[in-house]
Model the fold of this input.
Amino acid sequence: MRPLIDALGDPDPSEPADAAVLVLFTGADQGDLPGSVPESLPEDAALLITHRHPNMRHHSGQMAFPGGRIDPEDRGPVDAALREATEETGLERHRVTPLAVLDVITTGGSRKRVRPVIAYAADPGEVYPASEIETDDVFFIPIAHLVDPSKRLKVKFQRWSGPAFWARCYLVWGFTAGVIAKLLDAAGWSRPWDHTTRHPLDDALARSCNDER
Done:
């Protein structure tokens, strides 16, 4: 994780945010791997992802990081991201080590100002759809899967285009895919992939099991 955190730089703490998401990595500590290279990835390195319930009012059926609105009672974006992750996935916050808070990113559809919180858990324990109203699937995507060129594509909708990933039968796109792509590049984990061909978003979603409405 050190190359990734070093590459992210220092965020602007004064910029207000409406929401926070938890970008949780897991995998063996490199210090526990004799002879390992710091830049290499442990085989079990993975990233936590959720599938939003198709009956949700907003962003239904989309793949997302756990997260949500920063409430007045929260002690900032880290506290909000951890609280939301516990509510949505059953993740126990004592297992999680927050590492960095990114600059605010404004989402394309709802125009919400979101701060991603990068974190690590060597042993995240069991995760599951703890709030079945919000999520109906929760799992870890292997980083090896995300960097596989055959699982990456670029999608387009009208004048917009952006990166996307196949994860199981789901299509990860939009804000979530953009954050993942940025982090893979920053950490130096990305492998060359076809980012010149732009696939219609509707066609890709029709092939997925997102059930976006």
User: Anything to note?
Assistant: The mean pLDDT is 91. The domain at 16-28+43-206 is CATH 3.90.79.10 (Nucleoside Triphosphate Pyrophosphohydrolase). The helical segments are 2-8, 77-89, 143-146, 174-187, 201-207.
